[in-house]
Amino acid sequence: MAITQRMSARPAAGRVVSRPALDPPRSRRSVRGAASRGVAGLVFVLAALFPLAWMAIAGFKAKTEVVRTPFQFFPEVWLWENYAQILDDPAFVRTMLVTFGGAVLFATLSLTVNSMGAYVFARLEFAFKRTLWALVITTMFIPGMAILLTSFIVVTKLRMLDTLAVLVLPAAASAAHVFFLRQFYLGIPLALEEAALIDGASRWQIYRYIFLPMSKPVFVVVGMTSFLAFWNSYVWPIMTITSPDLYQVQQYLATFRSERSTELGLLMAGSTLAALPVIILFLFFQRYIIGGIRISGLK
Amino acid sequence: MTVITGRGRRAPGAGVRRQDNRLAYLMLAPLVILLGIFVIWPLIYAGYLSFFNWSFYQASEFVGWRNFSNVLTDRQFVESILRGLRFALMVVPSILVIAFLFASLVKTMGRRAATLLKVSIYIPTVISGVIASIIFVLIYDYSGGIANWVVGWFGIEAQAWIGDVRLALPAIAVPAIWMGLGISALIMLAGLLDIPESYYEAAELEGANWFQRTWYITLPLMKNIFLYLLIAGFTLAIQQFELPLIMTDGGPLDSTLLPNLFIFNHFRDDLFVGYSIAAALLLFLVLGSISALIFKALNSEKAVDG
Question: How close does chain A come to B304, measured CA to CA in Å?
Answer without folding.
Answer: 9
